[in-house]
Amino acid sequence: MVSKTEETQLNRLENQVDNGGGGAWEYLCLARKLKVRRPEKVLKYGLSILNDSKKRSALGPEEWTLYEQVAIAAMDCQCLDVAKDCIKVLRKKFPESKRVGRLEGMLLEAKGLWGEAEKAYSSLSEDNPLDQVIHKRRVAMAKAQGNISAAIEWLNKYLEIFMADHDAWRELAEIYVSLQMYKQAAFCYEELILSQPTVPLYHLAYADVLYTLGGLENLQTAKKYYASTIDLTGGKNTRALLGICLCTSAIGQVSKGRNKEDKESPELQSLAAKALEKDYKERADDKHGLLTCVLRSLKI
Amino acid sequence: MVAELKYEISQNAYIKLVLHALKHKTTAVNGILLGRVKPQNESVVEIIDSVPLFHSNLALLPPREIALIMIEEHYGSEGLGIAGYFHANERFDDAELGIVAKNIGDHICRYFPQAAVFLLDNKRLEALPKGKDQSLVIQLYIRDASKNWKLAGPDGGSRLVIKEPAANVVLSDYISSEKWQDVVDFDDHLDDIKMDWLNPELFK
Predict the structure, then answer these.
(1) How close does chain B come to A62, measured CA to CA in Å?
(2) What does DSSP assign to residue B91?
(3) Of B54, B73, B92, B186, which to mutate for an interface test with A (greatest number of A Cβ within 10 Å)?
(4) Per-block average pLDDT, block size 10, for chain B (204 residues)?
(5) Global confidence as pTM
(6) How many CB atoms neighbour CB A179 within 10 A?
(7) Which residue blocks in chain B are alpha helix, DSSP H?
(8) pLDDT digits (tens, 9 = 90+) for A71-115
(9) Which listed residue, of A108, A117, A167, B26, carries a Cα 20 to 30 Å from B71's Cα?
(10) What range(s) does the MPN domain occupy (chain B) (predicted)?
């Protein structure tokens, strides 16, 4: 998960390198640190360093990390020959390494040789039953073969052991959402919010899922979590502001004819609407009319 | 009557959707088709424009509801309505029209019964640069009498036509020049409202 500042920094570096201003190594390190998926750039910049013996030896021991990073990017771009070469170099340097073994497994995956990849991972995990990467490769393989129920099963098994892996919870939540299993997705976001209560993304996603589930109670809870997202993002999150408006409208519809005393105070939605109007006027004036139309439809 | 319907898509609408899918190769993406029944010929639905919607969490309602209101309002003033839905699956091997796509298609049919659903044909897209197969890289799905979405027959190719015959050539050019980087979708807009989902400069 990457913040806006981190993404801007990465993009700036990318532009710099693309325009011949150097900084390839900084880019590669940042990409590795942020765990972003930009295989074309990583492959291009990585190879430019690896294919230059001076630049390569200047890296010292980091050379091997770069080979690994480039191997993975190459597999992602289906440049399997490049990947094979990188892995060969690593194998030569680290003949007994399980880490290289994992890369070899991934190469089998990239070739679509699922059975052989599974064999490779099984033998690696015999000695390392707690290797997280291998567990996750199993999930990835199931997903790649379209076996979503197996992916869910493996991912749940993984989370029973490694319940602090936030990325895994997010992955599971997103798989559930794609299958319209919103209750299960909600559970995942609840786990995430419990363990990392100050990450606004989880509050927002949870609110979106609850709204999608519908029903008065879920809508009221969704509204609370859109509100907490606004709180955690200094009022700048467009999705959360719109979420407040959507919830207010939906709650109004669902509770038509009910006791007026249950009606919530209108301040939150008018504040949200005002914030949205101000933002659109300032930064997206050509769409301001459309926003007004949205607010009108939602009777805000 | 619906069985006789033909769909005519404009080059820009077509290319925009395919480029959007190429920008987000690792996830499913979707989009809205804008159009109307052709004024001169009621058995043809013309798809005049498209709006790329999302590249994450396609099955969540809040962003979709906002997008539909804004899109309808904008295009309504141009005499166009929501006429269909586009979907591209996450995996290359997945050639099925999934449940999310069908549900959104059903929703659109409530307002425009002749609505079509287009599914990106990954195999044809892959073959495009090789120049062998010049058919459109999208598949047409139509609802049958029992409201099930069906691939428009083996002659589906003739029910979906593109106005501009050189569209695939233009598309191939754009792919080589990585034009897909410039496509803005609704997700991008919600993340930063300065990003314009109308993509006014895309084909200039």
Answers:
(1) 29
(2) S
(3) B73
(4) 79 98 96 96 95 97 98 96 97 95 97 96 91 84 93 73 92 94 97 96 93
(5) 0.94
(6) 17
(7) 11-23, 61-76, 99-111, 122-127, 156-159, 167-176, 186-191
(8) 999 999 999 999 999 999 999 999 999 999 999 999 999 999 999
(9) B26
(10) 7-142
pLDDT for res A4: 81
CA distance A114 to A117: 5
B147 φ/ψ angles, rounded to the nearest 5 degrees: 65, 30
Give the residue numbers in B contacting A (CB under 8 Å), as ranges: 26, 28, 56-63, 65-66, 69-70, 73-74, 90-91, 93-94, 99-100, 103, 190-191, 193-194, 196
Give the torsion sign (CA, B22, A169, A214, B103): positive
B59 vs A112: CA distance, rounded Å: 29
Q: Is A209 on the interface with B (CB under 8 A)?
A: yes
Q: How far is B190 from chain A (nearest CA, A)?
A: 6
Give me the long-range contacts of A208-211 (CB less than 8 A, separation at least 24): A208/A239, A208/A243, A208/B57, A208/B60, A208/B61, A208/B62, A208/B63, A209/A173, A209/A177, A209/A182, A209/A185, A209/B60, A210/A186, A211/A243, A211/A246, A211/A247, A211/A250, A211/B60, A211/B61, A211/B62
- What are the pLDDT digits (tens) for A52-73? 999 999 999 999 999 999 999 9
> What is the per-residue pLDDT for B7?
95
Q: Look at chain B and count its residues.
A: 204
A contacts of B70 (beta carbons < 8 Å): 287, 290-291, 293-294
A146 touches chain B (CB under 8 A): yes
* Chain A, chain B: beta-carbon pairs less than 8 Å apart: 76
Residues found in chain A: 300
